[in-house]
Amino acid sequence: MAKTALEKRLIRYKDLIPCKAAFIDAKTPGSDLKDNYSIIGGGVSESKHQKVNLSEKHGFCIGAAGQPPRTKNSPHSHFTAEVFMVYNSAWRFYWNNDEKGETIIHPGDIISLPTNMFRGFENVGDEYGMIFSILGHDDAGGGVVWAPRVIEEAKGHGLVLLENGKLVDTTIGEKVPKRVKPKRKLTATQLKKFDQYTAKQMSAHVGRVGTYKPSPFKGFPNQTPDTLKWIDILGPKDSKGHKFQVKPGDPKGDQFNVYGLQADGKGKTGRYKRDEVEVMLVHRGKFQISCTYNGKSLKAILKNGDIFTFPKASERSVTAMTYGFAHFVVGNDYPKSPEIL
Q1: Is-contact 59 82, C-beta < 8 A?
Q2: Which of the four, 98, 158, 253, 255, has the lowest number of CB atoms within 10 Å?
Q3: What is the pLDDT of residue 155?
């Protein structure tokens, strides 16, 4: 039976589709075992083989990276915001041209990485690890800029990155187009134009789940007060009414905010709707969502790693069936207060 429009917006963790050769470093030893996922929107993959669970434009893209222990994602930079939410395992994020800055984050933690800065990450835990990502804008800002050594290390492994940002995999018979040249390495002069951050500066871009405090914002939908707490996680520094724990990674605007719903037991929110798109990603626990849109309704139970994206102006409520934690990604820099129904 074909899925309804609302059912297509429910993405199960088990249905995520990996790409083994999404980026130029995908066959480089040390990075060759990673998986890349594009979940909502086009993402930033360089490969035409990348599958997308839901291609509808949201104003931001949601993806994920899956990596065995000791597997790295090589140093790169983006033109838009890049935010990561750790699903499991422990991850080392490192930054700057010389990779001297670093931090370790754990399940439930979030890191917002500035634009125009080189960064990479490594699974330093003892299990296969997953991290969900949010990239600003529908086109993810035009792709990825790689550190020069990444381009150099990729030579001889069959992957060629072109000037147009597309990846050619010669190991499966793909050919480099005659009229498109391979992308050149950055020069020393170009490298100097990338920003450098100290560990203290970057600490403002990291949120740790055990330190989150309930939001003082009064505009959230009512919830069972003893068990459910709304949390301001990531948003603009000058946002009124909210007390965001993490500053945005993009000084020009992330085009999204991140909130949390912490469940210390069973409870439910009131019914509400938003003018903006809202994506719910369950970190841990069991939640039931109820959504009505264009005369159609859906009730579904979401568990660890499941995702549901609420259409703009749809009516919704969330019920916590156990303890747990869920992230909510809401479009726009300054989303309006939800309309309480």
Answers
A1: no
A2: 98
A3: 76
